[in-house]
Amino acid sequence: MRPSPLLLALPALSTAQQQFPFLDQVKGWFAQASNSISSAIPSAPSPPSVPNPVASGAKVIADAKVQPLTKDNYQDVLKPGAATASPGIEEWMIFVTGGNKTCFGRCERAETAWNESTALLSASRSPPNLGLLDCEAEPVLCNAWAVGPPTIFHFLIPQPLADQSTPATTVRSFGLNRTTVTAPEIASIHLEEKYTQKEPYEGIFHPFDGPLAKAGLAIPVGYAIWGFSLIPSWAFMIGVSFISRSMMSRRMQGGAPAGGAQPAAAPAAGS
C-alpha cells in the first residue's frame, strides 16, 4: 500500500516547527489580526421590541371614548342632566388608577384590562359613559372621594324631576386585583349588571349626596387629607412628643401650691 503524501509530510512539519519558532509567532500574529478585525466590525443591532398590537389598539380606543376627570371638571361632567345624558338614568363607569406614589407602580395590568374592556362596553346595546380618574395627577379628588387605585366607580345619575329636584345618585365601588384582573371581569359590571349585586355606598364621602359634598366641603377636605399625607412621619413624632411634654409640664405646674409657698415643716419630736 502506498503511503499518503500528507502522512509523509507530518514529521517534516513537526521538525520545522521545532527548528523555526517564528512559525508560532506568525500564528499569534494572525490570531491577533483576526480578533482586531472582528472587534472593528460593528455587530448588527438587535431588533426593537414590537408593542402588543391588541393592547396598543385598546389604548387608542380608550383614549377616544374615556372622559378624564379632574377636581375642576368633575361636577360639570358628572352632574345630573348633562348634555350626554339620555332620558332616565345616566350610567357611568369610572376607572381609578395611579402611578408609583399612589399605586406603587402596580396598576399596569389593571390599566391594560380597562383599555381592553372599553371596546366591550362600547359595543353593548346601552353603553355606559366612561371616565378616568388618575390619583397620581388628581390626588385631591381621590382623597375627597376616599378612593384608591385600582378601582371601578359605578354611578347611576338620575335626571332632575319636573320640580327640578334631584334624586339621590347611586354609587358603588369595585376594587380590582392588581395581578389577576381581566377585561371581561371589568366589562361584566355593566354587561351582566353585577353592580346590582353590590350594596350602594352612602357614607360621608359620597361624591354627590354625602354631607361633605352637600356642604361644599369635599374638595377642601380632600386638600386637607392630601396635605397631611405629605407630612413625613418623623414630623408627626416630633409634634406628638412636643405636645405630650407641654401637657406634662402644665400638669406639674398645676399641682404646685399657689404662690410657690413651700409646705410647712413637720413639728419636732417631743414638742
Descriptive report:
The chain has a domain at 53-229: Glutaredoxin, CATH 3.40.30. The termini are far apart. With 271 residues, it is of the alpha/beta class. It contains ten helices and five strands.
What is the element layout, followed by pairings?
Layout: H1 5-19, H2 22-40, H3 53-65, E1 66-68, H4 74-77, E2 89-97, H5 108-122, E3 129-134, H6 139-145, E4 151-158, E5 170-175, H7 183-191, H8 211-214, H9 218-230, H10 233-255
Parallel strand pairs: 1-3, 2-3
Antiparallel strand pairs: 2-4, 4-5
Protein name: Peptidyl-tRNA hydrolase
Transmembrane segments: 223-243
Keywords: Membrane, Transmembrane, Transmembrane helix
Which sequence of strands runs across the widest sheet? 1-3-2-4-5
Question: Which bin fits the share of residues in helices?
Answer: 40-55%
Task: Give the integer mean of the pLDDT values.
Answer: 78
What about the largest sheet? 5 strands, mixed
CATH architecture of the domain at 53-229: 3-Layer(aba) Sandwich
How many strand segments?
5
Distance between the termini: 146 Å
Structural class call reads: alpha/beta
Tell me the radius of gyration: 38 Å
Runs in which pLDDT lies below 50 for 5 or more consecutive residues are 3-10, 16-23, 40-54
- The helix-strand sequence is HHHEHEHEHEEHHHH
- CATH fold node name of the domain at 53-229: Glutaredoxin
SS element count, helices: 10
- Form type: globular
Tell me the name of the CATH homologous superfamily of the domain at 53-229: Glutaredoxin
Question: Per DSSP, what share of the residues sits in E-state strands of 2 or more residues?
Answer: 5-15%
> What's the CATH C level of the domain at 53-229?
Alpha Beta
Transmembrane segments: 223-243
Keywords: Membrane, Transmembrane, Transmembrane helix
Protein name: Peptidyl-tRNA hydrolase
